[in-house]
Design goal:
Blueprint: E1 11-17, E2 21-30, E3 33-43, H1 58-75, E4 83-87, H2 89-93, H3 97-108, E5 113-114, H4 117-129, E6 138-144, E7 149-155, E8 158-165, H5 169-176, H6 184-208, E9 212-216, H7 218-229, H8 239-249, H9 271-285, E10 291-293, H10 297-309, H11 314-325, H12 330-347, H13 355-367, H14 379-389, H15 397-408, H16 424-443, E11 456-460, E12 463-467, H17 472-475, H18 477-492, E13 497-499
Parallel strand pairs: 1-4, 4-5, 6-9, 9-10, 12-13
Antiparallel strand pairs: 1-2, 2-3, 6-7, 7-8, 11-12
Helix pairs in contact: 1-3, 4-10, 5-9, 6-9, 7-9, 8-9, 12-13, 12-16, 13-15, 13-16, 14-15, 16-18
Length: about 500
């Protein structure tokens, strides 16, 4: 089904640019459910292309780009807001990730978002939770990826604890079996290293507790399939089954020799690293059984898209929680938010901004003063740092960069270079709504000491005219002085603002 522009408007798509494999799923929303129409996956091993300086090799980039050329054929004509393309650990780590992202976006035609480890964990849990029975009881969910492993404790659809540790099947195989040779000592070293990583979360997770353990993604799927196809288990993974897998893997001299029923050829070379991590998970948490779930990051991304379209936006809760954590003056934030929205309503058509940009204005209004919890001097800079580097669930790294740029630029010097990290396609819109945020902050500088009328705002391209009731500025000389300073600041940034 297409709309007047030819866009396919009833489909949603998620693409997972993982450290080991790239995956794509295209689905259709139907009566509150998701019907999968197309699935594609390809081993890319992006993480294997990272050198000791975290530079992604051209060869690895080409493997990824070739895969995305295939995916792009299935995604043509879809609405951008109904497509989620997410990158995980390998691109989080790559210092030259922007080079790959720009090339990949040109092929796909959709923006690529790099997500933090805990956001990856949240989406994984969302995907897993929708594949399991909606029953009570906490679950421990483990997802062993190519470069990181995510651990979540949740109940029904709500995660209670989210962690992402720097260990994965590709990175561990590369680290502990660099020449491909498999030995018992090397395997035990890999298990010990994973157990050392798990010390960071062991106590907290055991205190929370869980009733069942669930695994997702390739390593755990391969382990269960190997156990079933060899007749060692009927379903799931147990300590006894892991012991048999370990014994079998140690019979192979190198990773090239691995030929284990149930483990696909494209996974055999990195299975040893993933198995070591899985062994450490069972040892650390004392697991008796783990079942496999088909849900993973891409399925979680689909449900997240559906949730956002139904106004069940985790980002709203995240912003609210951060405002509370840093003791934001909620009354002042609300005044700024309402004024910013009123200004936005007057110019968004002229600037061709849909309501999605209004949400960014809301969030920045709510968080623009979080830096005050650190120091008043330069608090806009402190706030920007907090927004940029915190784990904000629901936001991608690029999304946090957008919010940070707005918080950094809401007062004092208006520096367009603060928006340099934002993709060119959305940079202009971010600067436009930041101009509105600055005006809303200036107009509410009195912090509710007196009523502030909503001005009339006119736009002629980038030129703005702010019109206040006759005589009001004369009665409020401090606000008049602040607005005169804002005219000067925006002029220095290359923008025209006139106060009438």
């Amino acid at each position: 089904m297409t709309d007047s522009t030819g866009a396919i408007n009833d489909l949603i798509a998620a693409v997972d640019l993982g450290s080991n494999s790239f995956h794509m799923v295209i689905a259709q929303e139907f009566q509150g459910e998701i019907r999968t129409l197309e699935r594609r996956g390809q081993k890319v091993q992006l993480a294997a292309g990272l050198d000791e300086r975290s530079i992604l090799s051209e060869e690895a980039q080409q493997r990824g780009l070739e895969c995305l050329r295939e995916f792009a054929q299935f995604m043509q004509g879809m609405e951008p807001k109904r497509v989620s393309v997410l990158a995980t650990n390998a691109l989080r780590a790559a210092r030259n990730r922007q080079q790959f992202i720009e090339r990949a976006e040109e092929i796909l035609g959709y923006p690529i978002e790099v997500i933090a480890g805990r956001e990856e964990a949240r989406l994984i849990y969302l995907g897993v939770a929708h594949t399991l029975a909606d029953d009570a009881g906490r679950r421990l969910v483990v997802d062993i990826g190519g470069g990181s492993t995510e651990f979540i404790i949740g109940e029904r659809f709500e995660p209670r604890a989210l962690e992402s540790l720097h260990m994965g099947c590709v990175s561990y195989t590369k680290q502990f079996f660099p020449d491909g040779v498999i030995t018992e000592a090397r395997f035990d070293d890999a298990v010990d290293a994973a157990r050392q990583e798990l010390l960071n979360i062991e106590t907290h997770y055991k205190q929370l507790g869980w009733h069942s353990a669930v695994g997702s993604s390739g390593t755990i799927r391969a382990a269960e399939q190997a156990l079933v196809e060899n007749g060692w288990e009927a379903e799931g993974i147990t300590p006894a089954g892991l012991k048999k897998l370990r014994k079998q893997m140690l019979q192979y001299a190198t990773t090239d020799d691995v030929s284990l029923p149930g483990v696909k050829p494209e996974r055999r070379q990195v299975f040893i690293g993933g198995l070591a991590i899985l062994q450490a998970v069972f040892d650390t948490f004392g697991l008796e059984r783990m079942i496999y779930s088909d849900g993973a990051l891409r399925e979680g991304a689909l449900w997240d898209l559906v949730g956002r379209s139904a106004h069940e936006n985790v980002r709203e809760r995240t912003v609210q929680a951060m405002a509370e954590r840093f003791y934001v003056d909620t009354a002042q934030a609300q005044r700024v938010k309402e004024m910013a929205r009123a200004l936005f309503a007057q110019v968004h058509k002229e600037w061709q901004l849909d309501n999605g940009w209004g949400y960014w204005l809301d969030w920045a209004s709510q968080l623009h003063e979080i830096g005050l919890s650190i120091a008043h001097s330069g608090f806009h800079k402190h706030g920007a740092y907090l927004v940029q580097h915190a784990d904000l669930l629901g936001f991608t790294r690029q999304g946090q960069a957008k919010l940070a740029a707005m918080v950094r630029s809401h007062r004092r010097k208006f520096l367009p270079e603060c928006f340099s990290e934002i993709a060119p396609a959305s940079r202009t819109a971010m600067i436009q709504i930041t101009r509105l945020l600055r005006l809303a902050v200036v107009l509410n500088h009195s912090r509710g000491a007196h009523p502030v009328p909503c001005p009339l705002l006119r736009s002629d391209g980038e030129r703005l005219q702010l019109i206040l009731p006759e005589g009001w500025l004369a009665e409020h000389p401090l606000t008049a002085r602040d607005l005169a300073a804002e005219v000067s600041q925006q002029k220095s940034a290359g923008f025209s603002l006139e106060i009438l």
